[in-house]
Write a structure and sequence with these properties.
The chain is mainly beta. The protein has one helix at residues 2-15, and strands at residues 29-36, 43-49, 54-68, 79-90, 94-107, 113-120, 126-127, 138-143, 149-156, 168-171, 173-180. The chain has an eight-stranded antiparallel β-barrel.
Amino acid sequence: MFRRTAVVAAVCAIAATTAGSAPVRAVGVALTCGARTDPGQPVTLTPPLSMRQRTVTASGTFHLTDCFSPDRTQTRLRSGRLSFHGTGQANCTSTSGVRGSATITWYDGAGRKVGTSTLRPGTRQVNSYNPADALLSGTVVHGALAGARVTGSAVPTSDVTQCSTTGLRAVNGWGKVTFVR
């Protein structure tokens, strides 16, 4: 289980963004959503993630579903599509120096596009047994939810045990993401 969660932490740190320094308004949960990859469209890793620390590029898409606004400030945002491309120094258990970009296209309850958000990457080191420490973490710097901090968690739905032997080229997963002001 350690390898499974540690590799997801490393993959997701590249795939997502880490905390930035954008100003944050009064603290409150603005939005929470489920997050998942499509089974046929995993997060891809180039070169494959392995035990050797090296520059790895990750790209992919997460679908944000069943979005709910506890503070009632984002009631129009019901789902989204988060696309990302990032690079960092990574191995099966850690990631650092993350650079890249992520964009969320938001949809209302009828499936109509209602906005976008841009997330800023960061560079803090991530060493974790729990992917919640790395997945979908960052700061919204433009568009809907600008200034919000993003935190999340994920569980792999594909076999990640080959990371330490033959390397990991792709991974699917599901979890949760929260936007806090």
